[in-house]
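Supplementary Methods, section 5.1.

A reviewer requested that the exact input to the structure prediction be made available. We therefore reproduce it here, unchanged from the version used in the analyses.
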Amino acid sequence: MLTTTKGIVLKTQEYAEADLIVTHLTLDRGIIKTFAKSPRKTRSRFGSSLEPLTYARITLWGKEQSIPRITQSDILTSFQGIRENFQDFINISKFSEILISLMPDGLPNRRLFSFFLNAMNLVISLGQKQKDAIYLIIQIRLLMVLGYAPRLKGCGKCGAKSLDFYPNSGTTLCKKCIAAPSGGREQSSVKITNEIVNFYSQSIKWPINVLIRLRPTNETITELSALLEEHLTYLLNKRLYASDFLAKV
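The structure derived from this sequence is encoded token-by-token as follows.
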């Protein structure tokens, strides 16, 4: 069966001598793995359309239950500027890794597709000084759209005010609600501030096109980034490869 859709390349994996297995986030079918025959042999436009983060119109041949073969791929936006900027590429690759890790394959989500595409367009339109906050905001919004955003405003059990975030629970908890059951192990918490809670709440509520107005302090960015890393590490039972790479450089 021949089908056509729009897709963003999230990941490529070499296969055999010159082939590729390409993971796409698609408009109609969610995350899918596709097979590309011999794109590594030549520097063709077909091969260029399979570069990470490229947005393209792709034509697929094969059954939905199997890995379809890409018969045609036409670039809509190359996002070459993101690939050529180290910070942009590593951070967007991190978001791709989050998508692949938390989103089931083959589950269509047009809202998520539009968000990811708009996020890349936003990143490429900004100057570097504005981007540290934007990377963090995009990560927050991505987790929200996926349904895995931590709760920071009020105790997740009773709603009482609390500034203690518990990664094992994915929420802030008050002292009353965190009381460990008899014989249970006490959970470790991350202390947060009112500034973090306010910035986090605004990041979720404001439209993405006006998020550049937010001006968090470097301390808020650093502390909230660390909190999200702990949250994701617990969810995935491992650290993200992109996070480890950024820590090393």
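The longest helix spans residues 218-236. These observations are discussed further in the main text.
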